[in-house]
Write a structure and sequence with these properties.
heterodimer, A: 193 residues, alpha+beta, five-stranded mixed beta sheet, 11 strands, B: five-stranded parallel beta sheet, globular
Chain lengths: 193, 121
């Protein structure tokens, strides 16, 4: 981990598909376009985590099943929740902050799917079903977001990114395609007897 | 068909997702939110197969599986573990505890149903 001189703390950067759970006094950062990042924490235990995910959507309407995509979002959230519970966080004490889901031009041009909207709807629905309160959020809009999250205090600093949004979007577009390819090959069951 | 499956997972979203797939294939589904509730359900209802998560509050999946294997009436019940855990050591623990099979999330619905058909008595 490199030191972030602005905050004088080690900084852990997470990319699409990653998550980080810790009780250490560090800063977790990420850069979001249409992806979602959820900060999840048990404040009394000073443990928190951040993930960065999107739902995989094919551009082929016939081949697409929304429940397959949702399973990826659920999985990302479950990894984050389990990571926190393993460190001693209590499920009923978990609180969240939600970021991301901005619309980049190329997505808006696609008539078939509104991927940022699907990501946003998924996460609000998920947190509602799982009864995890949302303490703050910043979603939608046209600009990428840079997030700095302090897991021990649950503080989040957010600014709209000045980085060229087309490069962020290209990275997320590639990630979405990779994820969709993965959905076809997951879950090979293992039988013991 | 007509078999009854108990789905044990602390995540409501996962239970809903698995229930949807199982019911579409004609199975009857009961739910429990952790290992302790799972054991309680097994005492109350006839179940043909258990699908269980590992990491859960109150009682985890491995503890529940061990207790099922020590309970005469249900000791031969097939149990599929459905979990985010993919580490070899954890899978080995599951095998030792008495799990019948192991499926790493996110799962594929077709493969899940195929596996269920293989392990149902």
């Amino acid at each position: 981990m490199k030191l972030n001189p602005q905050f004088d703390k080690p900084e852990q950067y997470i990319g699409p598909g990653d998550y980080c759970v810790t009780g250490e006094d560090i800063v977790i950062s990420t850069l979001l376009g249409s992806c979602i990042a959820v900060a999840l924490y048990d404040l009394e235990k000073a443990i928190g985590g951040l993930n960065h995910f999107m739902l995989p959507f094919t551009r082929n309407l016939d081949a697409h099943k929304p429940e397959d995509s949702a399973r990826y979002g659920i999985n990302s959230m479950e990894m984050l929740i389990n990571g926190l519970l393993k460190m001693g966080a209590r499920r009923e004490k978990l609180r969240s902050k939600v970021f991301g889901g901005s619309s980049v031009l190329r997505y808006q041009q696609e008539a078939t799917y509104n991927i940022p909207k699907m990501n946003i709807e998924f996460i609000f629905n998920f947190l509602d079903i799982e009864k995890i309160p949302i303490e703050s959020y910043s979603v939608g809009g046209p600009f990428p977001r840079k997030i700095y999250y302090f897991p021990r205090t649950a503080k989040v600093l957010m600014r709209y990114s000045k980085q060229d949004s087309s490069s962020i979007f290209s990275r997320e577009f590639r990630y979405s395609n990779e994820l969709y390819e993965k959905t076809k090959n997951v879950g090979k069951p293992l039988l013991f007897s | 068909m007509g078999s009854t499956i108990l789905v044990v997972d602390d995540s409501v979203s996962i239970r809903q997702s698995v229930r949807f797939i199982l019911e579409q294939s004609g199975y009857t589904v009961h739910e429990a939110a952790d290992g302790a509730e799972g054991l309680k359900r097994l005492g109350e209802q006839k179940v043909d197969l258990v699908i269980s998560d590992i990491n859960m509050p109150n009682m985890d999946g491995l503890t529940m599986i061990k207790q099922i294997r020590e309970t005469d009436k249900i000791k031969f019940l097939p149990i599929l573990v459905l979990t985010t855990e993919s580490q070899g050591t954890v899978i080995e623990e599951g095998k030792k505890a008495g799990a019948t099979g192991w499926i790493v999330k996110p799962f594929n619905d077709v493969k899940l149903i195929e596996t269920i058909k293989k392990v149902l008595p």
